[in-house]
């Protein structure tokens, strides 16, 4: 699994969250007559964002993401003790050398089948009978740590760091849904 979740560019003060679905991703499936061209799955602005992220990861600028590139970029993010086996597993997710087209294809494959925002919001609404748009932190944490694919303590810590509850202990699930499906927080 790619561990490359957040990149900051000091030149543009941009943040890239690569593990989440990009804005308005066009999820065309070949069975429905969609194009097999990976570039047709994304808008031009999305492709540019992925290209910027690729360039950040490709530390030696040779056009291929290698284990050394991954090690260097993870070290620049403070993850210094990454095992060689973990890096090999990341690189082996691709069928060959990871150039930009392969990189984009890998994200396109990860995004296939992601539920649209309204479907995810509707699922959360079941847990919000008053329709406030929020859920109590304790309730959400109990569900996520005791049901189905249980979250670990580390995953919960990351969730609360990304989506801190308000002073009353409420979590804005609509914002979570937006970020899951768009890859960034709404601009206010």
UniProtKB/TrEMBL annotation:
<dbReference type="GO" id="GO:0005509">
    <property type="term" value="F:calcium ion binding"/>
</dbReference>
<dbReference type="InterPro" id="IPR011992">
    <property type="entry name" value="EF-hand-dom_pair"/>
</dbReference>
<dbReference type="Pfam" id="PF13405">
    <property type="entry name" value="EF-hand_6"/>
</dbReference>
<dbReference type="InterPro" id="IPR050403">
    <property type="entry name" value="Myosin_RLC"/>
</dbReference>
<protein>
    <recommendedName>
        <fullName>EF-hand domain-containing protein</fullName>
    </recommendedName>
</protein>
<dbReference type="InterPro" id="IPR002048">
    <property type="entry name" value="EF_hand_dom"/>
</dbReference>
<dbReference type="InterPro" id="IPR018247">
    <property type="entry name" value="EF_Hand_1_Ca_BS"/>
</dbReference>
<keyword id="KW-0677">Repeat</keyword>
<keyword id="KW-0479">Metal-binding</keyword>
<keyword id="KW-0106">Calcium</keyword>
<feature type="domain" description="EF-hand">
    <location>
        <begin position="45"/>
        <end position="80"/>
    </location>
</feature>
<feature type="domain" description="EF-hand">
    <location>
        <begin position="115"/>
        <end position="150"/>
    </location>
</feature>
